[in-house]
# Entry
Amino acid sequence: MIFILLTVFSLLAINFGNGLIVRNILKIETRSFVLISFLGMMGITMFETILAFFFPLGSMIELIFITIGLLGIIWFLKSERLSLSNFKFNFWFYFFSLVILFSASFSPYLFDHQSYYVPTISYLKEFGFVKGISNLDLLLGQTSFWHIYQAGFSHFVDPFLKINAYLSILFLIYIYERKQYFLLIFLPIFLLFVQQPSPDLPILILTLIVVNESINKQESPIILYLALFAFCIKPIVFWLPLFVILNFVYQHKFNFKVLIPIVIFGSLSVVKNLWLFGFPIFPVSFVDFNLPWKPSQEILTYSSQIGLMKTYDMKYSYQQVIEFNFFDKIYHWFTIGYKSVLNVGIIVSLMIISIFTIREKNKFYYLLLICIILKTILIISFSAQYRFFIDVYLIAIFLIFKNISENNSVTIAVCLSVFISVIFTFPGFLQQFNIGKRLSDFSWSQIYKPKVSSVMNFNSDYQIGNFKFDVPKYPFEKDFFPSINIYDLKLYDYYGVFPQQMGNDYKDGLYQRKLTAEEKIQLKKIITETENYQP
# Structure
């Protein structure tokens, strides 16, 4: 917890210092500590994204942004007054901060941590952007802006990848800064994300801030930047910048200057996707420029099939799913097991938002409802997984509780936070029901240093064609670059393709080509050896 606290204090200073510089460059009028900090994160991420095309996101880049942040703080102390002086933190602020630090000190438990988050951050630290990296692992072609930001501070400031703990405390500061205490009820939900650098947390927090600022008609120039930043972190919240733009039009605040950040953010996101994935929008193979490093059509087809099967929690084969009629799709979506409750929650959330819209008879709510329905229709057409609708759940909860009193908010937040903390401390109860397998018990060493996932990698130095790679002993752990797990090995074997280097260095790019007869035999041998591992 002590190490995480140091990370939090460091990032509070660095992001605020960089944010002051960004605020002055953009000529934005705000004295909000939190919104300025988000401007700092946004500015740092944009520059890191540009730098990643040319350089690894190494320690030197981290030192540069640390230095800029400190210079921004020095300038601030000489010329401005801190907005935080307008309010005081009470006992509950420190209580929730402690709960966040405590929850963050546990080891990461999401499968995505070892299979997506860590591999992405690792390759960015070592190489920067690798052209066509989706040919090694389609997930790496996603490379969220949140992991780009995290990679830049993973050497000194945040070596344990606990950036989401900082983000949760920043949101807590926002609650007290704006005196919007009903938002405390979201903190227990965020405790589920603070152990790992999940990009879900920043988009949830940014969504809440943008909607809250919009309802209260505050900070209108900044909310577009925050909405666009959220979109770059995870494009499934495309509805958020759309909502902000439509709200600007409704309030007659839209002008051509608004198009500048849209073009900048959009262009950077598209170029990044083209470089890493080969198509403008991940993971859709839409608008084909026929780039030589785009993934093979077989892998893209497989990815879309898996997305469709995940709609039904992998309970049915692809062939079964495509044979469903309209009523079969609805029936099976609501009867796939305990996760069907979450699918019902999507419909309930949409109904709640609709009821508020009808009751309030305000164009603000109509615009909100239209954008969320548009998002729902688009996501369902690709892959109706409940995890793509977490922001919809939050908007419904936001509307239900936005008028709740401070005392009730604190009571609910405290009870739920304590409950979740107890689960983290004693996970055995959940594990009896085959839930939370990767949760670990509390140990006293967490007081000063967070737990980390134990990694046992079998560094085997295999080579097929001109591509050298390692095979992880555990299927979901791909900490070292480049690694190919057993599932991807079998996938490449099935489709008869394999990654290859475009030059002498990984940085030159990767592409996929057909395997020769000899290479197919070699790959089958590697798969057999890997299957013989006994974790």
Q: What stands out?
A: The mean pLDDT is 89. Strands lie at 462-464, 467-469, 497-501, 510-514. The two ends are 30 Å apart (CA to CA). Residues 2-26 form the longest helix (25 residues).
